[in-house]
């Protein structure tokens, strides 16, 4: 569990580190210019950390499910080797998705200097500011959003549905409280993550 938390913390640090330093430099120098290479790099790391965060939250919900649903077998099922494989799969999926989105962005052509009313390069605004055909980019964005955004959400909801039914079957109130208290911090992070995503 701590191995998953350390990777989630690293993803969160990377998530904010892709935008905040450039924003602070822009505020200090009163210059809102970002070079094309910098924009591509920023989009890559932003998408990579976003997807890593998303998929790691799903793996963590599975971890909580195993801890509550199979407490006696938890250490056997969620051994360190499986945790490393799950985290490695999370990293690979997020890196491949970010690489795909960034490479698709390189194929776009822009008519003039591009001005984005944001403090960072957002993929959707850049794609829709291009002069060339953006249909392939739109398809890739929508498919990856549904598969890599909706899929983990369904996994989280399924895990917590199973957790809730397992907690409901516990007879003692203290046992219910103890089982549910292990999930509250993860649930708050999930609500915060998906709540801000829906708010945009």
Question: Nutshell version of this structure?
Answer:
The protein is an all-alpha fold. Helices cover 79% and strands 0% of the residues. The chain has a single domain (2-199), classed as Rhopdopsin 7-helix transmembrane proteins, CATH 1.20.1070.
> How many separate domains?
1
* Sheet with the most strands, sense and barrel status: none
Helix share, percent: over 70%
Q: Enumerate the spans where pLDDT stays under 50 for 5 or more consecutive residues.
A: none
> How do the SSEs run, as a string of H and E?
HHHHHHHH
Termini, distance in Å?
Answer: 30 Å
Mean pLDDT comes to 87
CATH superfamily: Rhodopsin 7-helix transmembrane proteins
Tally the beta strands: 0
CATH topology: Rhopdopsin 7-helix transmembrane proteins
The number of distinct helices, counting runs of at least 4 residues, comes to: 8
Instruction: Name the overall outline.
Output: elongated
Provide the CATH top-level class. Mainly Alpha
Class of secondary structure makeup? mainly alpha
**CA-based gyration radius:** 20 Å
| CATH-level-2 architecture | Up-down Bundle
- Which strand-content bin applies to the residues? under 5%
Tell me what the structure shows:
This is Olfactory receptor 7A10-like. It is found in: Cell membrane. It comes from Heterocephalus glaber. Pfam families: 7tm_1. This protein is mainly α. It has one domain (2-199): Rhodopsin 7-helix transmembrane proteins (Rhopdopsin 7-helix transmembrane proteins). It contains eight helices and no strands. It has helices spanning 2-17, 20-29, 36-69, 74-77, 80-106, 123-128, 135-168, 173-199. α1 runs antiparallel to α3, α3 (36-69) runs parallel beside α7 and α5 packs antiparallel against α7. The longest helix is centred in the N-terminal third of the chain and has 34 residues, at 36-69. The chain is elongated. 24% of the residues are buried. The mean pLDDT is 87.
């Amino acid at each position: 569990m701590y191995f998953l938390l350390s990777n989630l913390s690293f993803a969160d640090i990377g998530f904010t580190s892709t935008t905040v330093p450039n924003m602070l430099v822009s505020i200090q120098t009163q210059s809102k210019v970002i070079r094309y290479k910098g924009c591509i790099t920023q989009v890559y790391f932003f998408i990579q950390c976003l997807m890593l965060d998303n998929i790691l939250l799903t793996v963590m919900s599975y971890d909580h499910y195993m801890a509550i649903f199979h407490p006696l077998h938890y250490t056997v099922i969620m051994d360190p080797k499986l945790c490393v494989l799950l985290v490695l799969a999370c990293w690979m999926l997020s890196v491949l998705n970010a690489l795909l989105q960034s490479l698709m962005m390189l194929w776009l052509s822009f008519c003039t200097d591009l001005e984005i009313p944001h403090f960072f390069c957002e993929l959707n605004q850049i794609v829709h500011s291009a002069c060339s055909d953006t249909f392939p980019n739109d398809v890739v964005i929508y498919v990856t959003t549904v598969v890599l955004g909706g899929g983990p959400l369904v996994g989280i909801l399924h895990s917590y549905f199973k957790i809730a039914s397992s907690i409901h079957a516990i007879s003692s109130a203290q046992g219910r409280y103890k089982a549910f208290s292990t999930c509250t911090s993860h649930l708050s992070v999930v609500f915060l993550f998906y709540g801000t995503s829906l708010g945009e």
